[in-house]
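If you are new to this repository, start here. Below is one unmodified record pulled from the training split, so you can see the exact layout before writing a loader.
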Amino acid sequence: MRLPDQGRTPEELFATMRERKRADADWRGGRTFSLVYPASPEIDEVLTEANLLYLFENALNPARFPSLKQMEDEVVSMTASVLRAPDGAGGSMTSGGTESILMAVKTARDEAGVDSPSLVAPISAHPAFAKAAHYLGIELRQARLDADLRCDVEHALSLVDGSTVLMVGSAPGYPHGVIDPIEELAAAAAERGIAFHTDACLGGFLLPFMERLGHEVPAWDLRVPGVTSISADVHKYGYATKGASVIVHRDRHRLEHQGFLYDAWPGGRYGSRALAGARAASPIAAAWAVMTHLGWEGYRAQVSRILDTVARVREAIGSIDGLHLWGDPVASVLAFGSDSHDIFAVGDVMDDLGWHLDRQSGPDALHMMISPAHDAVVSGFTDDLRRAVEAATVSRGREARYS
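And here is the target side for that same chain:
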C-alpha cells in the first residue's frame, strides 16, 4: 500500500477498519483466553475516559506534565504496597512485563559489575528474560523443572557461579500457572550475594487479593527475604489498557542502576528509567484511574469472580474422560492435556468452534488465562470442549503457539 494521493473521509476509513476488525479474536465475547483481560463495562468506561483525557500528552518530561508524574508515582506506590514492599522501596512504570523484566536484568547486571555476566532462570520463565539476556550481553542458564513443574532448586543452584548476577522465579509462571519455590531460590541468592527477581507480571494483581479472600498462597512477594525486585503488570489483572507495568525494587537506590542519564550532546540533560524516551501518557492515566476506582475491595471482587470461574472450568476439565490439568495451578492460569487424546487435535476442533486457546509443548497442552468476564461463557465452553474431545482425531499439525 502506498500513501494515498487524496485522503479518505472519516466515514470511509472507519468503515474499512471495522470490516478488518471482524477477523480479530472475539475477546468481548469471551472467546479468547489471553492478550486481553475483560472485566466489566463499568471498568471499560473508566478506562475509555482516562485514555481520552491524556490521549495526546507525552510522559517523557514530567516537568511539563506534573499531573502525569504524580499519577505515575502514585501507581508505583500503590503497586508497591500491594506487593508488600518495605520502607525504602522504589520503582517505576514501564510499557509492559517485557520492559519491566529487561529493566530488572539491566539493574542486576550494572549493580554487579562482573565480566561475562550470567542469569539463572527456570525453563518456564517468560521469554522476556531470554530477550533481556540477548540484548544486554548476558548468558542465560535455564534450570529444569521438578515433577510439579516448578523450578528445580538444586539444578538451578548448580548453574550459579561467580558470574551470576540474577536468579529468577515466577509467581505464577505463564506456562502452567504454578509458583516457583521463591523462598528457597531467594534465600540461596541472598546467601551468594546475588539479586533475585520475582516475575509477578501475571500474579501481582491476583495473588494479594486471593490472600485477602482467605486462600493460602506460597510466599512470593517482597515479604520474602532475598527478593530484590518484582514486576507486576497493571494491564493484565490490574485491568488497565496496554501498556502499563510496574517494577518495584526493595531498595530505591537500585534505580540508579536501572536508569539512563546523558548530557554529552547539545540538547541538555536526557534521562529515563526505562527503554522508551517518548512515552504514551494514556496508559499511566488508565492505570491510575482503574486502580483508584477499584481499590482493594474492587480487586478482591474481581478475583472472587475469577476463582469461581476457575473452579467451574477445572471441574469441567476433570469431568471429561481423558483430560487432566498439568501441575497444580494456584490462580487463573490453566494448562490441560491428555494421555489418551491428541490434545492439539482437540484444539483444532475448538479453533473451528470459535475458541482461541494457546498451545504448549513439553508437555503438550491447551492453555487458558481466565478473566472476570469468562464467567458468562463457562457452560458454552464446557459443552464445546466435550464435543471437541469426542470429535477429535489427528491434529492438523499446528505447533505450540504463544498468545
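Two things worth knowing about this chain: The chain has two domains: 25-40+295-391, 46-292. The domain at 46-292 is CATH 3.40.640.10 (Aspartate Aminotransferase; domain 2).
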